[in-house]
Specification:
The chain starts with a helix and ends in a 6-residue tail after the last helix. By secondary structure, it is of the alpha/beta class. The chain is built from eight helices and seven strands; from the N terminus they run H-H-E-E-H-E-H-E-H-E-H-E-H-E-H. The longest helix has 18 residues. The protein has one domain: Glycerol-3-phosphate (1)-acyltransferase (3-Layer(aba) Sandwich). Helices cover 41% and strands 17% of the residues.
């Protein structure tokens, strides 16, 4: 109920705010408010490691609540790159568009290439981006293989990659469940990496930080 009410409030406010950064500030503020009202302890660690210049953030993905946690943790300078299926989710798709999110096709190669070029053009303007490079999540506790889009974009736009570990969200809201448990969530900024080394290195750092095995 709390999530629904606050989500509708964010959407209503952001329909009238003209500035993209303002809309992202509202979303991050309400994300932190939701976690507080829901009784979920929330902490961001090593935020000072985040570059002040444009960058690409990559994080592990284990729960639907990851997006709330990362939006609550990061400054309002990031466009989320999200699977295109989210466009069809009622209200959520509209809200994500109002926040400047970019939707990427995962299954149609031609459409996916078109989406990737659009994201690259956005990065070339200096827009920082946030990816969940696993693309999705399931009930298996592991760090899946990282898709290449985030790292190709970073390399071509000459941006560093920032590895971020999200702790605790799988326990707070397990895959396949809509029940929220009042357990801690922690977002940890791990390292800033050169784009050409980041795909495997970021995956290893995140796996070590959260204590999950690497998927074969």
């Amino acid at each position: 109920m709390c999530f629904t009410v606050l989500g509708l409030a964010v959407l209503a406010i952001n329909m009238f705010l003209p500035g993209l950064r303002q809309r992202r500030v509202v979303a991050g503020t309400v994300g932190r408010l939701f976690l507080r009202v829901a009784g979920i302890p929330f902490k961001v660690e090593a935020l000072e490691r985040l570059p002040t210049t444009p960058c690409v953030v990559v994080a592990n993905h284990a729960s639907y609540i990851d997006a709330i946690a990362i939006a609550a943790a990061l400054p309002p300078d990031f466009a989320f790159v999200i699977k295109r299926e989210m466009v069809r989710v009622p209200l959520a798709g509209l809200l994500l568009r109002r926040l400047g999110s970019q939707f990427v096709e995962r299954f149609n190669r031609h459409k996916g290439a078109t989406d990737a070029r659009r994201v690259l053009k956005l990065a070339a303007t200096g827009q920082s981006l946030m990816f969940f490079p696993e693309g999705t999540f399931d009930e298996t506790r592991q760090i899946g293989k990282f898709l290449g889009g985030a790292f190709t974009t970073a390399a071509r736009a000459q941006m560093p990659v920032v590895a971020v570990a999200i702790h605790g969200t799988r326990d707070v809201m397990p895959p396949g469940s809509l029940t929220i448990r009042r357990l801690p969530i922690r977002v940890e900024i791990l390292a800033v990496l050169p784009a050409d080394e980041a795909r495997q290195r970021s995956r290893e750092l995140i796996a070590a930080a959260v204590g999950d095995p690497l998927a074969p």
